[in-house]
């Protein structure tokens, strides 16, 4: 599959690129700094630019059959970076394109999936991040794409365990999931419509 990855130089994005290449996909990444793109692979194409720039995004998704976005924000104050980037990405994709996007547990209607104490704490500590992911999710859900939103609990580094729990309803049973596991799960979803047009929580 011809795949475009946004957020490819972040912790989860680099794992997605590795997993996609290992699975045999041809991968295009849009990066602001090509020096951070890591070692080159014959199946990896670099495009330089910002995910909020329509021209840069259009170049990156040209002929893409699938798109994965792991764009996040380190801002602690109010930010619309994630929402703005997704707005640009969605506008550039033809109807029916497969889109997978990383969000966070607590966004959308997933707040009730966490214990009340944790929900209240995150509502204070991560309220701006959650608000930005809320915006991203609204953009995705209002699109005509074949989307899946992966709301993740706390992302950690380390090797893949081969185990990801998917919650469509009910409570989340853990507080951590490795980036490597999430990356492998995202890449696997390119070949299935099991969770198409659904927002699920991963732990």
CATH classification class: Alpha Beta
CATH-defined superfamily:
NAD(P)-binding Rossmann-like Domain
Low confidence ranges: none
CATH topology: Rossmann fold
| CATH architecture label | 3-Layer(aba) Sandwich
Helix fraction, binned, reads 25-40%
Mean pLDDT: 91
Order of helix and strand elements from N to C terminus: EHEEHEHEHHEEEEHE
- The N- to C-terminal Cα distance equals 27 Å
Number of domains: 1
Biggest beta-sheet profile: 8 strands, mixed
Description:
The chain is 33% helix and 23% strand. The protein is an alpha/beta fold and 203 residues long. The protein has a single domain, classed as Rossmann fold, CATH 3.40.50.720. It has an eight-stranded mixed β-sheet, sandwiched between helices. β4, α3 and β5 form a beta-alpha-beta unit. It starts with a strand and ends with a strand. The mean pLDDT is 91.
List keywords for this structure.
203 residues; alpha/beta; Rossmann fold; two-stranded parallel ribbon; 33% helix; globular
Briefly summarize what is shown.
The protein is α/β, with parallel strands linked by helices and 203 residues long.
Indicate the topology.
Layout: E1 2-6, H1 11-22, E2 26-31, E3 44-48, H2 54-61, E4 66-69, H3 81-92, E5 98-104, H4 116-125, H5 127-141, E6 146-152, E7 154-156, E8 166-167, E9 176-178, H6 179-189, E10 198-202
Parallel strand pairs: 1-2, 1-4, 2-3, 4-5, 5-6, 6-10, 7-9
Antiparallel strand pairs: 8-10
Helix pairs in contact: 1-6, 2-3, 3-5
């Amino acid at each position: 599959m011809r795949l475009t990855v946004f957020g490819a130089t972040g912790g989860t994005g680099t794992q997605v690129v590795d997993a996609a290449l290992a699975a045999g996909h041809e991968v295009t990444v849009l990066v602001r700094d090509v020096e951070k793109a890591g070692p080159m692979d014959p199946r990896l194409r670099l495009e330089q630019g910002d995910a909020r720039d329509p021209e840069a995004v259009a170049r990156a998704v040209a002929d893409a059959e699938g798109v994965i976005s792991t764009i996040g924000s380190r801002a602690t104050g109010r930010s619309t970076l994630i929402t703005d980037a997704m707005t640009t990405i969605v506008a550039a994709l033809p109807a029916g394109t497969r889109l997978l996007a990383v969000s966070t547990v607590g966004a959308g209607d997933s707040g009730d999936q966490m214990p009340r104490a944790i929900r209240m704490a995150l509502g204070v500590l991560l309220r701006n991040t959650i608000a930005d992911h809320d915006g991203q999710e609204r953009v995705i859900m209002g699109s005509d794409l074949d989307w899946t939103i992966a709301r993740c609990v706390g992302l950690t580094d380390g090797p893949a365990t081969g185990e990801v729990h998917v919650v469509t309803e009910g409570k989340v049973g853990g507080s951590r999931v490795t980036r490597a596991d999430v990356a492998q799960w995202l890449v696997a979803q390119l070949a299935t419509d099991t969770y198409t047009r659904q927002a699920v929580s991963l732990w």
